[in-house]
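Hey, I'm writing a tutorial for new members on how sequence and structure tokens pair up, and I'd like a real worked example in the thread rather than a made-up one. If someone can provide the structure for the chain below, I'll link this post from the tutorial.
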Amino acid sequence: MRHVTRNGFNLGFAVLLMIPVPAFAISAITCHCFTDRTYDAAHPAAADPYFLVTTQNSFFAAAFGVDKKTIVINKQKGVSADDLWVAYWLAAKSGTDPESLLQRRKTRVSWRQTTTQMAIPVKSMGARFADALKSNASDERLAEAVVDELLLRFRFYGGPELSALRRAGAGNQELILAGLIAAETHQPAPQLYRTVTRGGVSWGTLLTRARIDSTKIQAEIATLVMSPTAPGSK
């Protein structure tokens, strides 16, 4: 067996450190590496980032009928959540492959420019998204419009309630998770959101009180999306 000296090992290690690491590898290290994935009463908010992301990914997968792994892999490659929402929304409305739209977006300055030559009926886009696209809104605003259209379609919220939560500062992740907990507990989503944002409890605490196991979030979301009985109609 070849003998490796300590100095030789250190030199080899230093050389490895100088080798460029592919961008997707770096992204994989920085994305979705959650050390806390279960609720811990001693640290009630520790797993909140995971609960928010996994609930959003589950909603995305159910809404567009894709494998959740596809979403995670795209994010690990550096694709933003905003671009994923917009690409899959446009793909669903135009019959275009979402991956090809994401590639096209890389060479365009905006989603409005990306869709210039796409013949998509404005009515099919949804009023919120169509208005945002027409005004050349930011990627974040376009993604919010997509999420709003989906939350309204699946009746997680009524229009006034959703608008009020947006004005209060609720982001996509918070809206989806609050909608899930509200559907399970029959508590108003705005009340749940205020409870968390005012520092009263964590999202993990609310999930635990609602008896929603973190490993069952995907199934719970899929049930709500597929159910003809709307969460918002209770």
